[in-house]
Structure formats: C-alpha cells, structure tokens
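We emphasize that the prediction below concerns an isolated chain of 44 residues; any contacts that depend on oligomerization or on bound cofactors are therefore not represented. The input was used exactly as deposited, without trimming of termini.
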Amino acid sequence: MNEIRHNPAKYLINKGRLNVSDDLFKPRLCKSKQKIFAILRKIH
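Result of the prediction step, given as a token string:
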C-alpha cells in the first residue's frame, strides 16, 4: 500500500492498468491527465 501512496501512477503502470507514455504529458491530452490524477486522488 505504501507503494501506491508514494507513486500511484507508477504502481498502476506496473500493474498494466494504465498504458502511459510521453503522450500523457502532452498538452493535447492535458484533460486526460487531469482525469487520471482525479481518480488517483479518490483512491487515497
């Protein structure tokens, strides 16, 4: 659980639930990134 708390995005990537690449950080996908982080905040 500590792994999830410290780096939830990396944890989800390792679990294969998110297919994250450099595209995540491109402005055109900013809304998608915001949705992902909103979901991650709900997990905590």
